[in-house]
Amino acid sequence: MPLVVPGLMSKDASSSSSSDDWLSKLAGKKIGEQHDETTFAKTDLPQEHRVLKPDDMKTMDFKPDRLNIHVGDDGVVKEVTKG
User: Fold this and answer.
1) Which end of the chain has the least Cβ crowding within 10 Å, N or C?
2) Which fold has domain 14-82?
3) What is the pTM assigned to this prediction?
4) Per its UniProt entry, which superkingdom is the organism in (predicted)?
């Protein structure tokens, strides 16, 4: 039986809803210097974030406060995760 830690691995975890909140803000937009209809400003992202393009190398360290922003080849946000 797998170990389940309440609030860490459940659907009700705050980190899960936080990444969902960020996805709703960022999905379909590009990350840039200023806000407009199609761009979200880098300055409004959390301090701990990284933007990952397809085939980018990334570290495997887990930082629960880090926001991982996954973009497609066109630079549009496709997915947002924490860690």
Assistant:
1) N
2) Trypsin Inhibitor V; Chain A (3.30.10)
3) 0.76
4) Eukaryota
